[in-house]
Design a protein that fits this description.
The chain is 50% helix and 14% strand. The chain is an alpha/beta fold. It has two domains: 308 residues, no CATH class; 111 residues, no CATH class. It starts with a strand and ends with a strand.
């Protein structure tokens, strides 16, 4: 494999204005983050986090991580990384991801590889410090519909079952049927057998979805020293009690995030809106919002309610029952980890911009935000097709209709551009406008109306000619459509649709190793990686 080239995120057409403006360091966003993801920014971040993170919190973190990994065979480098977290000059770089079935879309890999590679780069820049890559499993999420499937060669492989409560606590009932379906689509190569074995050990030999995901991520990334954390942990939640109290009784997150949104929405679409209380109540088969109503703290869609004293006692006795929502989870993460940087996709980074003022109000250091690496995997066969069609990578990122129109215009044996004719029409009507000065003014209105009609007619004729030429060059048009649909399935980025298994079946573990060699998380560009077909 080799990186063939990169393209600016801003030029892909797949990233929002807020992300493009962040990458461009636009003034309109600067009040919503602290340090930018460059070496100077990390130097400042290390100083800030060093001054605010306690050794007592480190000890709790290490104790919890050891317990969470107690029944998992982790690598020596991962074990060493967990131990390093006790040291005051050790920091983390974190990414988070849902518990998608068999990792879900390809970008699961890119998130974690970005995280691992950044820790390596930071170690070279700051050799007196240690840097540990963290994968935060979203075990407390309850959006099962988002995670219950993965795509394999255009087919959706789905886990059909009912789900209530936090997905991490789900049993693995029904996944043998999923393995059977997946196996029927795989070949019998060495790498295909490895995929079947990986799925079986993850989803048929573990007890719940948290354990299955931990096993899978450890098998793929354990050699890189990845540390996997589950926030659904009573020891870790106990560290978060003071912040839960502030949200229950003072509505701090609602107040501060709402204040930020007033300024942020002047230029950007808001990703997430806060609630009065940004917490869920978590129990067996239950994850429901906590709401304050009629002087009581009620659990939405249930008969459960608490007085102020009762909910305080519940929090002290069972902190694990209080689950942060999407706006509070980032704070929870930064409270319990000596974290420097959060690595996420465009949607994630967008809602983090809502949180800086909230972090400041509760005296927690706001992390550096880094857009994860994005990748298009390109085979030699794809490159050959592009060359025959005289298309570039930049062409392939274009809207399909525009790409086809551009190509047909370039190869057409007739000119599909009526600019000259439009100019001639405009000159003719300009003369008629001058004539109108010599007669009744109503004549000018008639001239303007006729000009608009004629120019619209010219546009229509140009479109008809283009349509006719597309039919004439149908074979080339079909090849373009087929190629672009292979690289951008469902008119989306490959990384958001395909599962890693499509490529692992051919390349095995070399896929992870080679992608890891190519990705530079601080380059801040979209990577196109050529792989052998």
């Amino acid at each position: 494999m080799k990186t063939n080239q990169t393209i600016a995120f801003q030029d892909t057409g797949y990233f929002s204005n807020i992300i493009c403006d962040y990458l461009d360091k636009k003034e309109s966003l600067k009040e919503f983050y602290n340090n930018y993801p460059d070496i100077e920014g990390f130097e400042n971040q290390i100083k800030s986090k060093s001054a605010s993170f306690s050794n007592a919190t480190r000890n709790v973190l290490v104790s919890s991580l050891k317990a969470q990994n107690d029944n998992l065979k982790i690598t020596n480098v991962t074990s060493e990384n967990i131990q390093l977290l006790k040291q005051e000059h050790t920091f983390t770089v974190t990414t988070g991801h849902q518990l998608n079935l068999f990792t879900g879309p390809l970008y699961f890999l890119y998130k974690i590889i970005s995280t691992i590679n950044l820790t390596k780069q930071l170690k070279l820049e700051f050799p007196d410090c240690n840097f540990v890559p963290i994968y935060w499993m979203a075990t407390e999420d309850h959006d099962f519909e988002e995670i219950q499937y993965f795509n394999f060669k255009g087919k959706k492989i789905k886990w059909n079952r009912e789900s209530k409560g936090a997905v991490g606590r789900l049993s693995l009932k029904g996944l043998r049927d999923v393995l059977d379906e997946f196996s029927s689509l795989l070949g019998d190569s060495k790498h295909a057998r490895k995929l079947k074995d990986l799925f079986r050990k993850a989803y048929l030999e573990q007890d719940n979805l948290t354990q299955a995901t931990r096993y899978l991520a450890n098998e793929i990334f354990g050699a890189f020293g990845l540390v996997i954390i589950d926030g659904d942990d009573v020891k870790l939640k106990r560290q978060f009690i003071p912040f839960v109290k502030k949200d229950l009784f003072d509505q701090v997150s609602y107040r501060e995030v709402s204040s930020t949104i007033v300024n942020l929405e002047k230029n950007y679409k808001i990703q997430v809106n806060p609630r009065a209380i940004n917490l869920f109540y978590l129990d067996k088969n239950l994850r429901e919002r906590i709401i304050f109503e009629d002087g009581l703290f009620k659990i939405n869609n249930t008969d459960i309610s608490f007085t102020k004293d009762e909910i305080l006692k519940e929090l002290e006795d069972s902190p694990e029952k209080f689950s942060p929502n999407v706006l509070m989870r980032p704070l929870y993460q930064e409270v319990i980890l000596p974290n420097l940087c959060y690595i996420g996709g465009g949607g994630e980074i967008a809602y983090w911009f809502e949180l800086k003022k909230y972090f400041e109000s509760v005296s927690i250091t706001f992390p550096i935000l880094l857009l994860r690496n994005s990748v298009l995997l390109l085979t030699k066969k794809h490159k050959s097709k592009m060359a025959k069609l005289n298309l570039t990578i930049a062409d392939m990122f274009q809207n399909q209709n525009r790409l086809i129109s551009k190509k047909v215009k370039s190869i057409s044996d007739v000119k599909i551009d009526f600019s000259d004719q439009r100019n001639q029409l405009k000159q003719m009507f300009l003369a008629l406008e001058e004539l109108s000065n010599c007669t009744d003014k109503s004549f000018l209105g008639a001239v303007k109306a006729q000009q608009k009609k004629q120019l619209n007619g010219m546009d229509y004729l140009e479109k008809r000619l283009l349509k006719a030429q597309k039919r004439k060059y149908n074979e080339i048009v079909s090849r373009i459509i087929l190629l672009q649909n292979e690289l951008f399935p469902n008119y989306s980025l490959q990384e958001r649709q395909a599962n890693f298994s499509e490529f692992y079946e051919t390349y095995g573990s070399d896929l992870i190793q080679e992608i890891s060699k190519e990705l530079d998380p601080l380059r801040l560009e979209f990577d196109i990686i050529e792989i052998q077909s």
